[in-house]
Write a structure and sequence with these properties.
Elements lengths: L1 H18 L3 E6 L14 H7 L8 E3 L5 E3 L2 E6 L5 E6 L13 H12 L14 E8 L2 E6 L6 H4 L26 E7 L3 E6 L12 E6 L3 H9 L5 E3 L7 H5 L4 E16 L9 H10 L2 H9 L4 E2 L22 H10 L6 E7 L3 H15 L3 E7 L2 H10 L5 E6 L20 H11 L4 H17 L4 E13 L2 E2 L16 E2 L2
Parallel strand pairs: 1-10, 1-11, 14-15, 14-16
Antiparallel strand pairs: 2-3, 4-5, 5-7, 6-7, 8-9, 9-10, 11-17, 12-16, 12-17, 13-17, 18-19
Helix pairs in contact: 7-9, 8-10, 12-13
């Protein structure tokens, strides 16, 4: 009898242990080039570290709402120039050093410094000074009112870093988040473990391993074999029906802030001629790209703005598929016989698959492209930083980022003075209807200048073990927030 009771107890314990699984293996397509989100444009860094390892004063939720982070609350002066942030108390960095107001001063001053390598340095341009009032209070003074400040501080580029960890941050990131960095097997995986000294609510997971699988076929095989528990941003949308029919899995069909564009180098001939850029735009059949590269997942766009944003304006008709008009515009620009250019593609499947389709479409109007497939680090070096390209395809996954068109040194090199002035007006405007009107003007200006070929808003399909809960469906920023992820039975 005692043996039967013991066996039953052991069986119950085993069942409980199984139900309480606390580790996770989650796959992503892109591996970060390094691990400092404050000094690179690679969203792949945020995909691993945002909210998990690094935290900012504010943060994004899955809905895109901005909520308190390391700042528990704040006050804004009547003139809109001073923000006083009250910080959480008792937070420490993963190296054991205390988090306080001086770390906020260091991080924001570093981000906005003249020699800053922060990819979104423009976010901090309106900050006149950052002052530590006391260990748990920071005062940020602006040069002019900015209704976007709390939003800007939620970006991954605005996370708080410790001065003591800066020298080694690219290889061993140290933050205040619920997970701490454990190991990076380059070319394979990054492992995070639960931070048992976290100042906030403890996550259910004790360990999370991010596996990097760039090939869509390999992604499908790994998921089917259950070598991984989930794949965020699954790169083979043609396989989604297969997973939906398999009870072992769940499929989350989400949206992103990712405007997928055929970027053109506006400072290099012949793309410095608006007629050529318009010709490229009219040569593209967006729906064919969506169907061929994304198997129907994606929403056509005609400007650099998310369709789910209430201020979005549908301008797709300005760049409708019209090969004959494209040829006429090329002839008008003195290129009746067409021309040749480069098409440099980063690893994501939307770029590699879409690039082949777009190259064929451009060939029909006389534009020949030399396709070069680049790894992510190469793309950042050659295209984003080096501006050595004619055409490229990339999805801009940062939230509400139309302001990048005001930067003349940004990789597609637009920066029209009238657009810069428009963005300055937007920053200084808080009245909702006036902001909507300015945003419509901004969308129309870049659409009518055909700065880039606007393709589609990137969808975000995730495949997960059916027992997993708490994974984000949508991606309002490039992140894989694990704070609410847990296993069920």
């Amino acid at each position: 009898m005692k043996r039967l009771v013991l066996a039953a107890l052991l069986a119950g314990t085993a069942s409980f242990a199984q139900a309480q699984q606390t580790d996770l293996i989650i796959a992503l397509q892109l591996e970060p080039p390094h691990l400092d989100p404050t000094s690179a444009a690679a969203g792949a860094i945020d995909s691993v570290l945002y909210t998990n390892v690094f935290e900012g004063l504010t943060k994004f939720t899955e809905t895109g709402a901005v909520v308190p982070g390391l700042a528990r609350e704040w006050e804004i002066s009547d003139d809109g120039l001073t923000y006083t942030f009250h910080l959480v108390e008792g937070a420490t960095f993963h190296d054991g050093t205390a988090f306080d107001a001086e770390d906020v001063v260091f991080s924001l001053d570093r981000a906005r410094a003249e020699d800053s390598t922060n990819a979104q340095k423009q976010l901090f341009a309106g900050i006149a000074s950052v002052e530590a009032v006391d260990p748990v209070t920071v005062k940020v003074t602006l040069s002019q009112p900015d209704g976007n400040l709390l939003f800007n501080l939620a970006w991954g580029d605005a996370v708080i870093v410790a001065p003591e960890s800066i020298d080694d941050i690219k290889a061993r990131p140290v933050g205040t988040g619920p997970f701490r960095f454990e190991d990076w097997r380059q070319g394979d995986s990054i492992t995070l473990v639960r931070n048992d000294d976290y100042w906030g609510d403890a996550p259910a997971l004790t360990q999370a391993t991010f596996k990097f699988i760039s090939d869509p076929t390999a992604a499908f095989a790994a998921m089917m074999a259950q070598d991984i528990d989930a794949f965020a941003g699954f790169p083979a949308p043609e396989n989604l029906p297969h997973f939906e029919a398999d009870p072992r899995f769940k499929v989350l069909r989400g949206s992103t802030e990712g405007e997928t564009i055929l970027a053109m180098n506006n400072a290099v001939a012949p793309f410095d001629d608006v007629r050529v850029r318009e010709a490229v735009a009219h040569a593209i059949d967006r729906q064919a790209v969506i169907d061929g590269a994304m198997f129907g997942l994606g929403t056509p766009i005609g400007t650099h703005f998310a369709p789910h944003n209430p201020d979005y304006e549908d301008l797709t008709a300005l760049s409708n598929f019209d090969p004959e008009k494209s040829k006429a515009l090329l002839a008008e620009a003195g290129l009746a016989d067409g021309f040749s250019t480069t098409l440099k593609l980063p690893p994501p499947s939307y770029a590699r698959r879409g690039g082949e389709i777009i190259a064929a479409q451009l060939r029909e109007v006389g534009i020949e492209t030399e396709i070069t497939n680049l790894e992510w680090a190469q793309w950042l070096e050659q295209v984003f930083n080096g501006k050595d390209f004619g055409l490229t395809i990339v999805s801009h996954t940062e939230p509400f980022d139309i302001g990048i068109y005001a930067r003349p040194d940004y990789y597609f090199q637009y920066g029209k003075p009238e657009f810069v002035e428009l963005m300055d007006k937007l920053t200084a405007t808080s009245e909702p209807e006036a902001r909507t009107e300015l945003l419509h003007q901004a969308q129309e200006m870049i659409a009518r200048d055909y700065v880039n070929g606007y393709l589609f808003q990137l969808a975000f399909p995730t495949i997960a073990d059916a027992r997993l809960e708490g994974i984000w469906t949508n991606a309002p920023t490039q992140a894989t927030d694990l704070t609410e992820v847990h296993w069920t039975e």
